[in-house]
Amino acid sequence: MVVKRIVVKRNVNQPPVTAGPTAHRTAPPGAAADWGLLLLRATFGLLMAGHGTQKLFGLFGGGGLAATGRGFESLGYRPGAVYAVIGGLSEFLGGAGLALGFLTPLAAAALIGVMINAMVTVTVAHGLWATDGGVEYNVCIAVVALALAAVGPGRFAVDRFFRWGRGGWPEAALAAGLGGGGAAVTLAL
After folding, report:
1. How far is it, in rounded angstroms, from Cα 12 to Cα 26?
2. Handedness of CA 90, 168, 163, 178 (dihedral sign)
């Protein structure tokens, strides 16, 4: 059986569309996947940025730096205020970066690092489910951040103008490596 591959050039600004049994179609501008990524990034990113502002500024019912610093000290992070700033900024800037689709692999790394620390120091001892205080929530946040680095932020993102804006294995590896490495350094201190 002979399989023919037909390449049709639509216009200068769009890549060719191939037809045939093994063809992959290029989605038109504004495709559902791009809108879906925007919805995911905006919701997830803004909620994570808000979580960071709870730590940093006491917004949205958070304790602010003083209370968050005391919480970090009780977990063995000293000085607690410094770790409160690091954790709060990681969540705020990581969330804002994902919401905007800006420096996506680095934004993902910031959230992954914070979630690894949370898992190791707080939630892993309680098992899997969040209802028991387990790692479920932290794992979900880390996986969504890593997936966004791997898939890329989509067409409606600041990063669309840069190579890393398309996502891929190198971007996912960078996010996982920096997030894991940052968490390891923090846990070792």
Report:
1. 14
2. positive
DSSP state of 132: G
Alpha helix (H) residue ranges in 101-134 = 104-118
pTM: 0.84
The percentage of the chain sitting over the pLDDT mark of 70, rounded to a whole number, equals 85
pLDDT of 147-173, one tens digit each? 999 999 999 999 999 988 999 999 999
pLDDT at position 30, please?
74
Helices and strands (H and E) in the chain: how many: 6, 2
What's the rounded Cα separation, in Å, for the pair 91 and 49?
Answer: 6
Nearby residues of 55 by Cβ (< 8 Å), 6 or more positions away:
62, 63, 64, 65, 68, 84, 87, 88, 91
Say if strands 17-19 and 6-8 run parallel, antiparallel, or are unpaired. Answer: antiparallel
